[in-house]
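User: Hi! I'm a student and our assignment asks us to look at how structure tokens line up with a sequence. Could you show me two examples?

Assistant: Happy to help. In each example below, the sequence comes first and the structure tokens follow. Example one:
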Amino acid sequence: MVEWTNLPTDLLLQVAHYLDTYTDYVRFRAVRRSWGHVLPRQPRHSYYNIPCLMIPYHPHNGNLRGFYNVLNQQVYYLELPQLTNQKYIGSSKGWLVTLDNGLTLQLLNPLTKSQLQLPPTSSFPGIIGYDPNNQGEEYTLLRPMDKINTKSRARVHGEYIRKIVLSSLAPSNDFMAVAIYDSSDKLAFTKFGDDKWTAISTSLNNFHDCIYFDGKIYAVNVLGDLGVCSIDDTPTQLVNLPLKRPKLEVTSKLYMVETNGDLLMVERLSKYMALFNRGRRCYGYKTIGFNLFKLDSDGWLKIENLDGCTIFLGLNTSMCISSKSCPKLRDRSRRCLWHDDPSDPFVWPHPIWVVLNSY
């Protein structure tokens, strides 16, 4: 009989296939050094790509962050002192995007603790000056019609950068980040090695979301208008696609996600109402439902179901996992759409979906 510590490679791989979480997989690789050499550092099974919900606050230890796994409904804690005094912009491709008090943008892999620095906020288009000594008016911005105004560092820190999405898992020559920024929700990009953000020219504005899809950047605005630009060269021009607009609610928030080779748009419906928490009352927007649209040759076609897929929405780059490739997700979660609610006034900082990987 073969000792369990000397299991053959094919049997090790088969056992690894039945592990539910990335945490279990890491522990399995760590049993013996030889197992760590045999089993790939990053597993290829679909359920390891399922994001965890990062809980960005711990009541007793400011360095701990919890990660809720939807498959086994457990919370795993990681020591992440790198996140102290950081604002969470979102997540993309397994990286957390953060902004510190000095308005430095950083990427952090919460599992490996790897960090990358993006060009600073002061290098965004439209910011033409920064004077840290001019308290309350540190930033000088160029507005439409060549008007100039100032903003405090606190306001820029709190509201200037809306979202950042990444093109790939790890830095390389074709690595690119696209940001939605400013009060008019414009687009800018930076490539690996750049020291500034460059504007993407477009006739559209008020973008809600953007995504890398089919080798291009797609961006959707508040009206459901869709623009696209290539990433082969410098993506300085976004072309507005002549598509029929969908019927949307005024207070909608739009997201885009790829599923089974199709591009979907998810409309988050919200309603302004009285909200209560532990006897406290305030007024704000609450999510009350969702509408789904699929892109076809004419425009956004409304659909009624996700055809066996599960979507994760929020401050993250939206993700879709097929239940065919991950039946455990369908069997255990019994949901087709997981979302956080960034408009909830009682939750701050807001939780973020993030994929744990070792790249």
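Example two works the same way, sequence first and then tokens:
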Amino acid sequence: MESRVLLRTFCLIFGLGAVWGLGVDPSLQIDVLTELELGESTTGVRQVPGLHNGTKAFLFQDTPRSIKASTATAEQFFQKLRNKHEFTILVTLKQTHLNSGVILSIHHLDHRYLELESSGHRNEVRLHYRSGSHRPHTEVFPYILADDKWHKLSLAISASHLILHIDCNKIYERVVEKPSTDLPLGTTFWLGQRNNAHGYFKGIMQDVQLLVMPQGFIAQCPDLNRTCPTCNDFHGLVQKIMELQDILAKTSAKLSRAEQRMNRLDQCYCERTCTMKGTTYREFESWIDGCKNCTCLNGTIQCETLICPNPDCPLKSALAYVDGKCCKECKSICQFQGRTYFEGERNTVYSSSGVCVLYECKDQTMKLVENSGCPALDCPESHQITLSHSCCKVCKGYDFCSERRNCMENSVCRNLNDRAVCSCRDGFRALREDNAYCEDIDECAEGRHYCRENTMCVNTPGSFMCICKTGYIRIDDYSCTEHDECITNQHNCDENALCFNTVGGHNCVCKPGYTGNGTTSFSQRMSAARAVSQTLARLTPSAMTSPRLAWTR
């Protein structure tokens, strides 16, 4: 009962939705007479007037002949036909009275995979074929075809369903063993005969075609009713429903197991942590990194520029930078010869006789530092430099940075003539006046970049980079131009869709006779099949959560 309701629903939807034009897709058509290139030089046949003047007609004479497709042509035929379960044989013919002959034959050695024969002696049409079990079969249809009159014949096969039309009238409809089209290499194609010596057809043939499509008889008789789906369609639909039911059952089981795991996870507390320079910090924990105040939030480190306090220092102290810290702190000072020195700073004083005396600020008093002697220099006196914090001279080019370690992140030490200073790396700016701490300059946010049209500026540590917008390709480091994805075949359009280039991208439009979003196209017949799946979803409660049926040709 359910199958009859399903089939009735399927037929109704196809009656409303499956409307094809009368044209046939060339990729689904085998025009036998055209491909065989019959002509006046072909022995045993000659061109004669046909039932109509639209195509050529040929008289197959009662003389020795060999109308056989070449190996290359036959393989082109079989590439379209091989492993297909829906196809139609079409022919317009006028067979000589009482002639028994083969209309067409596809066979390999002694195995007839598909042979259509008309017997004028027994007044019957015969179909010889091999089934999927590789057994030979013959279907006999009593009918007088060899009467020296014009007839239109079509034999449509859809899986195990067979329909014979003659002169646009349905003569026979049967359920048979499913024909096999698993054609091996070396299979031959004959027209008007079984081989060189047997099954000669006598008469005229016109419009001999093989259509690899369901209900191909419409191409011969456009007024015939084809509202109902084919047997192969129905079998495919049933198979898809069974697959969806299996997918639904497996998905439901997976969801159930996932819910159980989530319920167990809800009972756990998993704290997220942050790691910076080898140190792990807990959620909401804050710390100071150089001149940045950082916090661990949801497993992510967020840092802001540190705002330094400005405390009031006690007597004989003042604010000064301390090694390893960003902000100034109160530090003891010394007053000496009208200048202020911080704790640990040194200064030289030279007497009138040129003797150097070294003082150091210690415990708020400038104290004399004992002279322990100076190392010998290996440079001439003209290249020797006098320093303000040491009585020992040095040679030009001395590496003062080797004595200094207070240039921090993104800052480098540079040697001057008589001292070392800190300098920010390129792309960074100083966070304090001695350049010991520096922060990255966001060139993108401040408009200090060179990115041109069709690009996006992305900040990087110490610099920036220009990224091409979607649909554009790079010219140089700063410029991009439009990219035609259609010409370079770098689009995602379906094979049955057309690609149209647009500014910054492309559009996919289905070819005539197809429907879809352009990246996935369906024939109009397949579109109706999708409508079936939607109707079934409304009829079957269990299908309400099932995925949409995926139809392929």
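Here is something you could point out in your write-up. The helical segments are 2-17, 32-36, 71-81, 231-266, 443-446, 524-539.
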